[in-house]
């Protein structure tokens, strides 16, 4: 290893002269501009207008009211209210799921609904009592949140549920005030009856205090993907430098090893073996830092470690396969595959039901989405398979197979065609 510039003063062209050549600017300028443009469109396109992009956000609607109906009516107030809520909300924006208490709790606990609106038992009786001397409290509707699905998704569901409850209260109020006016009720009572229902908001499936309001699953997954992505590129560059195919520069020091004659296929195999070993270390350190040092709430630790390792390994192998296939621009390609396209389609910060359809399409296969679902199931939903863990494992297996097949198919093709990497005369 020698220090650049030691001994003799290098001679050659001056930078200001070389910079005048337009062709030198062309490729870096075009690539950098395209990256800036597409990153801006991809990242901001998924979060700018979640309310306008709502597409069938699932919210549970539970009606425990058994009546009896108010005088002159055929249905309990709870049934009228439930029908009015589902009819007044666009079905393209919200998918109200009519469930009983048991099923609602199960779907909150498996992350299938973002929240719930509950009409309690005896609701009709409490509404009827408002116009009599038996009234002791206002009728109450309960809005349940599901913070394990992320603060924004839970907040959207809560806002929608509270708005529906408010509209339902006004509907009931119109009926009560009409009856009160006919009975000669005083203005104070009629003002109370105009909006008679109180709304209580509370968590339907609580998560730990050290869960980042439901965001630790996203950031933990981001750590897994980023360490695999960056580590994969470090391994790729380190192996190429060690085999003599690229220069190794550290500060002013520069070296170039003798080129080792090795096929593309064997080079990829070497990089993948190293990735499998190093990811063991990075996964363990990630868990130590987040759980042991920072105190992140986590359960099922062995399962979390195995899932984290397999997810990071699959991303790392994908990085190596893409670099082997695309060469110098492989790092940009893998950045788009694992980061740029993945983050806005993860559904971890903004629900997939609140992003444009393009991102919902990406979520079908983008690895970040699959890993987030598995991590979220382990951290918040008791590692239930139907909360996203089963899909996470299945898609990790698919990604693992695709990375191996894609990488080795192309490197073997390149080798058979004689498209070998440059071998120096020193060898």
TrEMBL record:
<comment type="similarity">
    <text>Belongs to the ABC-2 integral membrane protein family.</text>
</comment>
<feature type="transmembrane region" description="Helical">
    <location>
        <begin position="328"/>
        <end position="346"/>
    </location>
</feature>
<feature type="domain" description="DUF3533">
    <location>
        <begin position="31"/>
        <end position="396"/>
    </location>
</feature>
<feature type="transmembrane region" description="Helical">
    <location>
        <begin position="273"/>
        <end position="296"/>
    </location>
</feature>
<feature type="transmembrane region" description="Helical">
    <location>
        <begin position="25"/>
        <end position="48"/>
    </location>
</feature>
<feature type="transmembrane region" description="Helical">
    <location>
        <begin position="217"/>
        <end position="235"/>
    </location>
</feature>
<dbReference type="InterPro" id="IPR022703">
    <property type="entry name" value="DUF3533"/>
</dbReference>
<keyword id="KW-0812">Transmembrane</keyword>
<feature type="transmembrane region" description="Helical">
    <location>
        <begin position="303"/>
        <end position="322"/>
    </location>
</feature>
<dbReference type="Pfam" id="PF12051">
    <property type="entry name" value="DUF3533"/>
</dbReference>
<feature type="transmembrane region" description="Helical">
    <location>
        <begin position="393"/>
        <end position="414"/>
    </location>
</feature>
<keyword id="KW-1003">Cell membrane</keyword>
<protein>
    <submittedName>
        <fullName>DUF3533 domain-containing protein</fullName>
    </submittedName>
</protein>
<dbReference type="InterPro" id="IPR051328">
    <property type="entry name" value="T7SS_ABC-Transporter"/>
</dbReference>
<keyword id="KW-1133">Transmembrane helix</keyword>
<keyword id="KW-0472">Membrane</keyword>
